[in-house]
Design brief:
Number of strands: 8
Number of helices: 13
Bound molecules: dihydroflavine-adenine dinucleotide
Largest sheet: 8 strands, parallel, barrel
Strand order of the largest sheet: 1-2-3-4-5-6-7-8
Oligomer: single chain
Structural class: alpha/beta
Helix content: 40-55%
Number of domains: 2
Radius of gyration: 19 Å
Shape: globular
CATH class of the largest domain: Alpha Beta
Order of helices and strands: HHHHEHEHEHEHEHEHEHEHH
Distance between the termini: 43 Å
Strand content: 5-15%
């Protein structure tokens, strides 16, 4: 019989797998958006349904000394008109952020920009956002989706990254420690001087391409993190894992890696205590702030990351049964 911790890890892995499968169910997403208690809980992870609602939340983070990157929620878009609308939302965002004196830093997904429909459409849309970023000195991070998009996303990054980055405009990528290929990708991107956000990986992936054991993913994260910290390429360490964060601080301090040589990144509404603590201690912290009506798959990934989030949601749903 497996011991208690092995059994609970198995149960967690099974729960994660179910939630990530449900995250693709569009019909469930349409239903979820109508239930008031789900919407209330979503508010913990999402800064609003519109840019006007999100901007004050971004301003509050700035007032607390945090940096931000803003994400207009949306992914796996199947209609060209929606991909073009997403592009227009980002163009409006890149006007609104500097107008309010906020960080010119956005994060977007290829499948939101049309990559699932047609590669050329995604290139055109992301290209338009990057052109605006070049004009306004902004930073565009291309988020990494599941492994079917990895090569295409890295190709897009290589193609669209501006040659002249003197006004601060740049395009960065994301590497997922869970993927077996990531060590090679990190080496290639570092050699090109590219800016990487390192995360563990939020998608359900087959064993052939990704580590399945949490311990293996954590180990890979730490290995890649050390490589990036020592690379001088201004990496973004995207994690809420206290043990890993402590290790980064320990290595940076011991090796004289400056506080301006990398940044920590965390998700809006996740471990706010840790965000405050790091910021107060003088470390750079950037918060990933999502907003928009298409929050369902993003929200499901957040539930999958922490089973306690699911029991909290179920308790509230039970308490409010019949009221919706
Ligand atoms: P881990 O899952 O081990 O969690 C460590 C601790 O953090 C937990 O014990 C808990 O306390 C807390 N925690 C983590 N998630 C939580 C949650 N949802 N609710 C409450 N507490 C939580 N992924 C991807 O595939 N592509 C991408 O482009 C990105 N981009 C990205 C940007 C940023 C800024 C962040 C922080 C993360 C991503 N991710 C991502 C998501 C990432 O891959 C990963 O799924 C989550 O960050 C959770 O992993 P942790 O590193 O936090 O560790």
């Amino acid at each position: 019989m497996p011991d208690r911790s092995a059994a609970s890890e198995l149960a967690e892995r099974a729960m994660r797998s179910v939630l990530l499968s449900l995250s693709h169910r569009k019909s469930l997403g349409r239903l979820a958006t109508k239930v008031p208690v789900t919407r209330r809980m979503v508010g913990r992870f999402v800064a609003g349904e519109t840019m006007e609602e999100a901007l004050p939340a971004i301003e509050r983070l700035h007032d607390q000394g945090m940096r931000t990157t803003v994400d207009v929620l949306g992914e796996s878009v199947t209609a060209e008109v929606d991909a073009r609308a997403a592009c227009a939302d980002y163009l409006a965002l890149l006007d609104a952020l500097p107008a309010r004196g906020l960080d010119r830093n956005v994060s977007l997904k290829p499948s939101q920009m049309g990559a699932k429909i047609d590669e050329a459409l995604a290139r055109e849309n992301i290209g338009a956002v990057v052109a605006k970023a070049i004009e306004t000195g902004a930073f565009v991070r291309i988020d990494m989706e599941d492994h079917r998009y990895t090569d295409r996303t890295l190709d897009l990054w290589r193609e669209l990254r501006p040659a002249d980055r003197s006004n601060g405009a740049d395009v960065g990528v994301v590497i997922q420690a869970a993927l077996r290929r990531s060590e090679q990708d990190v080496e290639a991107i570092v050699a090109e001087g590219g800016r990487i956000r390192l995360c563990k990986g939020a998608y359900k992936e087959p064993e052939s391409v990704a580590f399945q054991d949490k311990a293996e993913v954590d180990e890979a994260y730490e290995r890649l993190m050390l490589r990036l910290l020592r690379s001088g390429t201004y990496p973004a360490l995207a994690t809420h894992d206290v043990r890993i964060i402590k290790r980064a601080i320990e290595v940076a301090t011991a090796e004289g890696i400056g506080r301006d040589a990398f940044e920590f990144q965390m998700l809006y509404g996740v471990r706010r205590d840790l965000q405050d603590e790091l910021c107060a201690a003088g470390w750079r912290v950037r918060v990933y702030v999502p907003f928009g009506g298409q929050w369902y798959p993003y929200f499901m990934r957040r539930l999958a990351e922490r089973p306690a989030n699911v029991s909290f949601l179920l308790r509230n749903l039970w308490r409010e049964r019949g009221r919706a």
